[in-house]
Every structure is written in C-alpha cells, then in structure tokens.
Amino acid sequence: MMGVQKAEAQLVKEFNLESHVPADHLLREIDRFLDMD
C-alpha cells in the first residue's frame, strides 16, 4: 500500500539581489541609466 506524503512545498524563495551583485559590478552601472518603469 502507498503512503500519503504530507510535505508542504516551498513556493516562494527569498532572494536579496543586493547581497548577490557586487558593488562594482557592470549591472549596477547600467542600472543607473536604465529606467524600467
């Protein structure tokens, strides 16, 4: 007989972009000039 699994899946993962992109990275330079609004 198969058992029933009762595990909740984590659908949202916390991610802080500021802590993953170095201060001197090229993307930060581009971000100053690019307006995504």
UniProtKB/TrEMBL annotation:
It comes from the Bacteria. This is Uncharacterized protein. It comes from Silicimonas algicola.
